[in-house]
Amino acid sequence: MRDKRFVAKHRGGPLKKEQHRQLVQWGCNCAENVLSLFGGEIDIRLKKAIVVAKEWIKGNASVGDAREASLGAHAVARESLNPTSIAVARSVGHAVATTHMADHSLGAALYALKAVKSAGKSIDAERNWQNEQLPAEIMDLVLTARIEKEKALKL
Q1: Domain chopping of the chain, boundaries
Q2: What pTM value is reported for the model?
Q3: What is the pLDDT of residues 13-43, one digit of tens each?
Q4: How far, in Å, are 7, 29, 103 from residue 10 at the CA level?
Q5: What per-residue string of b and e applies to 66-88 under the rule 16 or more CB within 10 Å gives b?
């Protein structure tokens, strides 16, 4: 069930356009912070997805562009065998998918945590870092919504 607080105003929800942009940026921050865990050379589709998401923030890319980039990132995940690489690619895919549905930003953060855990690093340190990246305007929204999602992923 989708959290209705993540629905954009133009679709009848409470989320302002600037908050949506902040969620996309935060999702990108989370994904980029774990990109180095991908292992080996970073697939160009992952790099492209981050660029498309950032271009969407500036108004230079469409949701269709972002959807295509997200599908590319998720294809990287399906093609990967390493659990850490899979989680990194999923994090990137969710970051760019945030342009379409704002609550995908939570997926970007949670898959980043999963990547960190899989790599044997501290998920508490990563979670704290993620929290520090949150703009004040969306902090309460993200933190309250993330609690339930983390329980479901057993993080």
Answers
A1: 21-153
A2: 0.93
A3: 788 999 999 999 999 999 999 999 998 899 9
A4: 8, 25, 16
A5: bebbbebbbebbeebeeebbbbb
